[in-house]
Amino acid sequence: MKEVKIHLCYSVCSFAELSVSDQKLISMAKESAQKSYAPYSKFHVGAALFLSNGSYIVGNNQENASYPNGICAERTALYQAGAIYPQQTIKAMAIAACNDKGVFTSSPCPPCGSCRQVMLESEVRQAATPIRLLLYGTDECYIIEGGASALLPLSFGCDVLTKQ
After folding, report:
1. Which residues pair with 57 in a beta bridge?
2. Which of 57, 78, 107, 145 keeps 20 to 30 A from 123, CA to CA?
């Protein structure tokens, strides 16, 4: 039997240590989180994308009493980018989360599995170009350069569908 280890490398920094452009993207995600509709979980998430044409797209979570009918912030933003700018590359995504009182999480909020899968497909759409991820927390921020594949090793992709 062979053992294989999977590693994730990411940078940890404070908000103040980020570049001005990264701070802007995180600020947009934070603003979007405060506009989300989360009456059930009280967990408000915002996402902001920076595209290759210089455009920005934001999204936030939208809950529903029938829980499976809600949608996460990341997927809201990714689907909107695909609908409005299908030919543009998503260069970066920032994610931030807060409670009903607008208090942001102290630790960075990672995307859920469904959002990771959609990010992976978005990277496939843009010729396997990784999306740089910025995860915000008041105590620290994470920068993940490897994109969705770094967050979702052993992922389910189109290559699996073609293997028989």
Report:
1. 49
2. 107
| Mean pLDDT, the chain, whole residue set | 95
CA separation for the pair 4, 114 (Å, rounded): 24
Active site residue 17: no
Is the pLDDT at 160 greater than 90? The verdict is no
Which residue, 36, 8, 47, is CA-closest to 154?
A: 8
Choose, from 3, 31, 63, 74, the residue flagged as catalytic. Answer: 74
Nearest to 63 by CA among 91, 100, 104, 28: 100
Tens digit of pLDDT for each residue in 94-107?
A: 999 999 999 999 99
Distance CA 87, CA 78 (A): 13
103-108 contacts, C-beta under 8 A, 24 or more apart: 104/30, 104/33, 104/136, 104/137, 104/138, 105/136, 105/137, 105/138, 106/137, 106/138, 106/139, 107/137, 107/139, 107/140, 108/135, 108/136, 108/137, 108/140, 108/141, 108/142
* The two three-digit tokens of residue 10, written as one number: 């990411």
Q: Are 147 and 123 in contact (CB under 8 A)?
A: yes
Strand bridging mode 56-60 / 11-13: unpaired
pLDDT digits (tens, 9 = 90+) for 127-158: 989 999 999 999 999 999 999 989 988 788 77
